[in-house]
């Protein structure tokens, strides 16, 4: 578990409730679910090509962690690219915080399965790259120090990234993602290449950090266990074309997530059953 060495005072919480002083965590009310709004999104990669996504309507609250689960080819990565503005949908639109998404922005960052760090740079230089791209010049060193400490890599700051294990590299990539203080993280199976223990530690840490910072997260995964470990809510995609076929809250306490208690196992079984039914539709 990552221990926070200092409270990240300068990290922005993006909850709609920030002005009321209430918790930023996952408002359940449908009316609050408008921080990310995917409306009528459909997609084909070519004019006469197959429909990859059809009529996707999805609303996500600020501070909510949503797992997007679906079989290979169901369009999860396509939807994530569309939300991020890296791809334009054939139909429909995405709004983030009320603004139509037309292109990528430092307010939302994507993180992929491979950490894609620059091997000739140190851990600190890699962690600072997002800040460089966001054209931040002031306070860069302090911010890099802060995020590296957040992911427990403070003592690796001056090491070459090639000296890090796979899990540590993924932590460095996560530090780089959160350094520019994004509001929204879009994670595309970021832990799938890691061994089960490293993966579980990172899943817990990323959830804890995201909740602490009030980040909204969309996490693409095949892994039901990962969804229950990390998410407040699971959205299930059926395939051919990808459509939303299920949307369910994940009700387990933080303690149950960390200990993977009986309650956690029951929730995993419930979600797996739902997913099996839906995946069978594809
Ligand atoms: N650049 C592309 N050009 C044409 N078709 C594509 C392209 N990228 C993806 N596709 C097709 O779109 C469909 C959805 O792909 P996508 O990568 O979104 O699925 P996914 O759910 O992320 O799968 P996986 O779990 O394997 O990563 C697939 O049938 C795929 O072949
Ligand atoms: Mg994918």
UniProtKB/TrEMBL annotation:
Residues 36-264 form the ABC transporter domain. SUPFAM superfamilies: P-loop containing nucleoside triphosphate hydrolases (SSF52540). Residues 1-31 are annotated as: Disordered. SMART domains: AAA. The keyword Amino-acid biosynthesis does not apply. Keywords: ATP-binding, Nucleotide-binding, Transport. Belongs to the ABC transporter superfamily. This is ABC transporter ATP-binding protein. One of its GO terms (molecular function) is ATP binding. Residues 1-10 have a biased composition (Basic and acidic residues). The lineage of its organism: Bacteria, Pseudomonadati, Pseudomonadota, Alphaproteobacteria, Rhodobacterales.
């Amino acid at each position: 578990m990552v221990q926070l060495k200092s409270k990240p005072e300068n990290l922005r919480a993006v909850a709609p409730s920030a002005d009321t002083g209430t918790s930023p965590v996952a408002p359940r009310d449908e009316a609050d679910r408008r921080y990310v709004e995917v409306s009528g999104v459909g997609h084909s990669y070519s004019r006469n090509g197959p429909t990859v996504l059809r009529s996707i309507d999805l609303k996500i609250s600020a501070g909510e962690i949503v797992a997007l689960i679906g079989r290979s080819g169901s369009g999860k990565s396509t939807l994530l690219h569309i939300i991020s503005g890296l791809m334009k949908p054939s139909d429909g639109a995405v709004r983030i915080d009320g603004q139509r998404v037309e292109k990528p922005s430092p307010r939302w960052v994507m993180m992929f399965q491979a950490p894609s760090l620059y091997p000739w740079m140190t851990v600190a230089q890699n962690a600072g790259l997002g800040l460089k791209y966001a054209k931040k010049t002031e306070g860069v060193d302090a911010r890099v120090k802060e995020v590296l400490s957040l992911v427990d890599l403070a003592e690796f700051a001056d090491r070459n990234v090639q000296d890090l294990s796979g899990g540590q590299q993924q932590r460095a990539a996560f530090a780089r993602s959160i350094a520019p203080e994004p509001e929204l993280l879009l994670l595309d199976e970021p832990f799938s290449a890691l061994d089960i223990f490293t993966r579980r530690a990172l899943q817990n840490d990323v959830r804890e950090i995201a909740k602490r910072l009030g980040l909204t997260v969309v996490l693409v995964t095949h892994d039901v266990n990962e969804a229950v470990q990390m998410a407040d809510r699971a959205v299930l995609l059926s395939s051919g074309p990808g459509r939303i076929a299920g949307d369910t809250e994940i009700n387990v306490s933080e303690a149950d997530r960390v200990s993977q208690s009986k309650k956690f196992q029951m929730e995993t079984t419930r979600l797996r059953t739902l997913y099996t039914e839906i995946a069978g539709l594809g």
